[in-house]
Amino acid sequence: MAGVDWDRLLETCVVRTWNAVLTVGQPPIWRSEVGLRQGQVMPLGSDDLRSMVEELVEPGMKVEKGPGLSSFLLSYGGSERFRVDVIGEPCPTSIILTRILANAPELIREGSGWFEGWKVMDGALIWRDLVRFSKTDVIFAAGCPPLRWCEWGVTLYGAPVMTEEKIAEIVKTIKPPPAGCSEAAGYLLFRFRADGARDEFLVSVFGGGSPGMIHFMRMEVE
Questions:
Q1: CATH architecture of 6-219
Q2: CA gyration radius, the chain
Q3: Domain limits, the chain
């Protein structure tokens, strides 16, 4: 089987209480309370991600659609529930895997209406404001609107679809000098605080010289 074994992936999430990001050009990346860490396997390709999604999605399965995004529930071990958010159409570029806790609202655990009523809001939304006022992680990925990643999975901001050019512009604006960056096997890592924000974000830029996704991980200040 191409890609990463789903049972191994899900078991790690349950045992470690982590979530995961699968993106082209990287091994699985684990999201814990203290930051990101890479799995010790080979980087994933676009064919790997496509095969992994095809392995899960069966005819008649409930899959909810948003602009450039599809999402579905995944059960594991009888009682565990995961939200699988697939970014990129028709070919996946990233998969966001979120373990849904037992105390989540029933509609979240059962999967219903995640993207109902979504529309682009009147007036331009400024990306800095999305980050500054966010209480969760924020993801900018080419081909879909800005995303909010919380303990229940991914939701859409009411903003236009992001382009690779816009993502590159954001990276150019916030990237610190080389001394303030580290490169972790193919992705760029640095810290960022939006003007007026209380909390700092750990920023991961995926895609090398042509960035396709930025992940802002909120690091709460005590």
A1: 2-Layer Sandwich (3.30)
A2: 17
A3: 6-219
CB 162 within 8 A of CB 146: yes
d(CA 114, CA 63): 10
Cα 31–109–152 angle (5° rounding)?
A: 30
Q: What angle do CA 149, 85, 117 make, to 5 degrees?
A: 75
Cis peptide before 90 (omega within 30 of 0): yes
Q: What is the pLDDT of residues 106-151, one digit of tens each?
A: 777 777 677 888 888 876 678 988 898 888 999 999 999 999 998 8
